[in-house]
Amino acid sequence: MKLQDKVCIVTGAASGIGKEIALTYAREGGKVVIADLNKEAAQAVADEIVAAHGVAMAVVMDVTSEDQVNAAVAEVVKAYGGVDVLVSNAGIQIVHPISDFPFADWKKMLAIHLDGAFLTTKACYPHMQASGKGGSIIYMGSVHSKEASVLKSAYVTAKHGLIGLCKTVSKEGGKHGIRANVICPGFVRTPLVEKQIPEQAAQLGISEDDVIKKVMLKDTVDGEFTTVQDVAEVALLFAGFSSNALTGQSLVVSHGWFMQ
Ligand code: NAD
Predict the structure, then answer these.
(1) pLDDT at 260 over 90
(2) Residue 77 above 90 pLDDT?
(3) pLDDT band at 205 (very low <50, low <70, confident <90, very high)
(4) Which of 83, 134, 154, 210 has a CA positioned 20 to 30 A from the CA of residue 236?
(5) For residue 66, what are the CA distances in angstroms to 15, 62, 81, 112, 163?
(6) Handedness of CA 120, 137, 13, 76 (dihedral sign)
(7) For 92-138, what is each residue's pLDDT tens digit?
(8) Are 23 and 15 in contact (CB under 8 A)?
(9) What separation in Å is there between the alpha carbon of 132 and the centre of ligand 1?
(10) CA of 90, closest atom in ligand 1
(11) Which of 10, 17, 24, 88 to mutate to test the pocket of ligand 1 (most atoms within 8 A of CB)?
């Protein structure tokens, strides 16, 4: 058990990548908090963990709301006594050519990805410091933390920004044993990506099959999607690592789409 009794908050854990990370952490003995906008789906994930004899609770959290983030983290600390691991994972995708990108959509994207990462970090950090044990903060970046793609100006900007936040948290947190790292997955077939396939087909004037083969997986070494399990393995590595040797890093898990 790599996370025995560690309190792990995972945002956006009602679906996709976050859900798989929550299930993986629970199997490794973590006390897992399913933090999501979607109350029913978050509760269903917590119920699934408890049914498998794990420990979990669901909290309603819009990561863009300082009040909701602070209230949810306070609820977790009251229930479980602290916070050891934060996975800032909640995210959405909105695609437009830059000349048509509505400013409201741009602001929404930056709010969820960057304000969300900042607010959850700010709320959890003092508890990691006060415990004297430090903690692990993991940001869900993307290959788009390193590379750009057409139509994704807001997403690429936000995902690059997470690397700056991670490096700063690593420097400030080092003396308290608070580590920060970024996971950078390639395309994973979650609801977020399923939605993009027809959208990109329409925007680019190509078939959905061509969006998958010629856009999403074009530069991988084997034409394969990354899986939620692949990403959860990396999230477990970062969460379970016990020293500052591994901090301020970004790890790409993308079937070779991006090579550092
Ligand atoms: P998903 O749509 O399956 O799940 C996202 C979850 O986030 C949902 O449960 C949703 O309710 C929640 N959420 C959305 N806005 C929220 C908010 N304001 N507050 C709290 N929760 C909110 O998506 P996914 O593919 O699992 O994506 C998870 C993360 O992984 C995102 O940050 C995404 O950018 C990143 N990512 C995804 C891929 C991919 O190919 N799927 C690749 C790289 C990075």
Answers:
(1) no
(2) yes
(3) very high
(4) 154
(5) 22, 9, 21, 12, 21
(6) negative
(7) 999 999 999 999 999 999 999 999 999 999 999 999 999 999 999 99
(8) no
(9) 31
(10) 7
(11) 17
Q: Please give the CATH architecture assigned to the domain spanning 7-186+227-252.
A: 3-Layer(aba) Sandwich (3.40)
**One-letter amino acid of 19:** K
Q: State the distance from the centre of ligand 1 to the C-alpha of 91, rounded, in angstroms.
A: 4
Residue 224 exposed, middle or buried by CB count within 10 Å (0-12, 13-18, 19+): middle
The residue whose CA is least distant from atom 12 of ligand 1 is 12
Say if residue 21's pLDDT is above 90: yes
Task: Tell me the percentage of the chain whose pLDDT exceeds 90.
Answer: 97
State residue 139's pLDDT score. Answer: 99
Tokens of residue 196, six digits: 């993009």
Torsion, Cα of 252, 15, 163, 146 (10° steps): 40
- Mean pLDDT, range 56-68, rounded to an integer: 98
The rounded distance, in Å, linking the Cα atoms of 8 and 83 is: 6
155 classed as catalytic: yes
Cα angle value 207/212/216 (rounded, 5°): 125
| Residue type present at position 95 | V
Identify the DSSP state of 81.
S
Q: Pick the residue whose CA is nearest to atom 19 on ligand 1.
A: 62
Residue type, 232: A
CA of 11 to the centre of ligand 1 (A): 9
Residue 13 scores a pLDDT above 90: yes
Separation of CA 49 from chain center: 19
Tokens found for residue 37: 């906008």
